[in-house]
Amino acid sequence: xxxxxxxxxxxxxxxxxxxxxxxxxxxxxxxxxxxxxxxxxxxxxxxxxxxxxxxxxxxxxxxxxxxxxxxxxxxxxxxxxxxxxxxxxxxxxxxxxxxxxxxxxxxxxxxxxxxxxxxxxxxxxxxxxxxxxxxxxxxxxxxxxxxxxxxxxxxxxxxxxxxxxxxxxxxxxxxxxxxx
Length: 180
What we know:
- By secondary structure, the chain is mostly helical.
- The chain contains seven helices and no strands.
């Protein structure tokens, strides 16, 4: 995984893009993965597709919130300053907005508008998560064992109460054995 060093203009651009993504992070930070991938890989060329996917995988394998892929991608693109500006850009507006909206929503929880908004956000969130998953599968699309492992994990997660940690461990074993 590369750890490039961005100049001040690149760091500012990364900060501002993460700031914008923060306001669009409906369904959590992982829902912003496709747009962040487009920006750092396709538009800016700071990372390769494989580096981006590796950064996300590394962050997801470590303990902590899903948001942790943001500073890992920032680090891969711009070193420690890249990690810091990406994380700050992602956290500042969403934190302020969340505090304000949560307080307002708690006072108006039973209103028709709030209930309709919540019901309408369910399909949006689901769609963003599906697109994120499809993006992360692309580098593995020619590896049948990896696709079978991912599909099996999806079905097991959906249909059973198997802990995700067992599925992650199975994926780690498959990787260690060189199957994926």
